[in-house]
Amino acid sequence: MILLTGGAGYIGSHVCIALLDAGFDVVVVDNLSNSNKASLERVQLICGRSLTFRQVDILDEEAIYETLCSYEVSAVIHLAGLKAVGESSIRPMTYYENNLLGSMRLVSAMNRASVKTLVFSSSATVYGVPTYLPLDEHHPLGPTNPYGRTKLFIEEMLKDLYRSDNDWRIGILRYFNPVGAHESGLIGEDPKGVPNNLLPFVAQVAIGKREKLRIWGNDYDTPDGTGIRDFIHVVDLASGHLSVLNSLKQPGLLTANFGTGNGSSVLDVVRTFEAVSGRSVPFEIDKRRIGDVAVCFADPTFAERVLGWRSVRSLEEMCADHWRWQCKCPDGYRGTNSEGR
Ligand code: NAD
Ligand code: UD1
Fold first, then answer.
1. What is the residue extent of each domain of the chain?
2. pTM score, two decimals?
3. Is 247 close to ligand 1, i.e. is its CB under 6 Å away?
């Protein structure tokens, strides 16, 4: 049995599908602070298999301990966390409590239950401003916001844990920019309010929910002047978790980039989205967003060499799958039944 924290969320629901399809039994723990239980109903519909859901906060160590014991959990995939960069600067203590203290309590419960296999979702944001590209796992770390620092501190905590007890099997995954949705169009990213991230915003403009995209800066030192990111299809990202579980058969700690190695500019995304959707995405150029870097993309060769995993889906597929989800479930998980109608 695999325990998946944050499994009702965007990435978690896709990881759930990967696990169920691979034959694992799954217990999801999520406090639903940024998600909807309907995502898990749809996961079960897609897979034709059931999972167990417990509405539990990872800060509740006793409830986590009880879940680990009663479901005979063998490994934990830990995705639960708050992730809004801007909000983390306004409410840093909420982020430290939820992400850092939550991870400490989770690890403490795991220790007590002698469950010592853990996959943790970190972020490329731990690298901060790139000093060279592509970003490999040895690049210096220096996150520029409280959210990123919670990720860095959890990484350091897990490294100390492993140094103190070599029985642990720990995978630290640094996700780049997860986008897209499951090909069914039944699950996907369901941002509350105005989306912060590019793809959800572009999709809402394409469908007519928002008038136009604001492109934050076209004066970067890039071929078209707009920012460049390493977008990775969420289904590829999810399948990578299976490779990590597989490679943690022996004790050890590994840290891997989860990206494609390809950079796409904001304008590349806009044009690709227009092409796959057949809709126009009007935009205007605005000033740079504070905290943005010009270019960020991964060196994904470690994951390929050590885990035998790499992403395979193109930017076209990312946009097409995101668009299918946007059309099928224009209001996300609100106001639709579990068939997505
Ligand atoms: P999400 O918000 O959709 O999912 C996170 C889930 O965790 C939500 O379902 C939320 O309800 C749950 N959660 C939050 N705090 C909790 C708590 N204390 N107890 C129990 N459940 C809790 O976000 P996502 O995009 O699916 O991200 C998943 C993980 O991946 C996060 O840790 C995030 O920081 C990390 N990550 C995401 C991205 C990205 O761009 N989406 C990039 C890098 C890393
Ligand atoms: C953001 C987070 C980062 C996180 C990542 C993935 C910030 C400062 N950084 O980064 O910590 O790991 O998401 O969740 O928030 N853009 C526009 N208009 C928009 C939205 C985005 O032009 O309305 C541009 C941005 O300026 C950037 C690119 O699109 O150049 C991608 O933006 P976004 O999707 O927010 O991802 P990141 O900037 O990589």
1. 2-328
2. 0.96
3. no
